Amino acid sequence: MATTQTRTGIPTFEGALTQIRDFNEQMLDVARKAGVQTLDTYEKAADRAIDLERKLAGATKQEWLKSLIEAHADAASELTDAYTTSARSLLK
Question: What is the pTM of this model?
Answer without folding.
Answer: 0.74
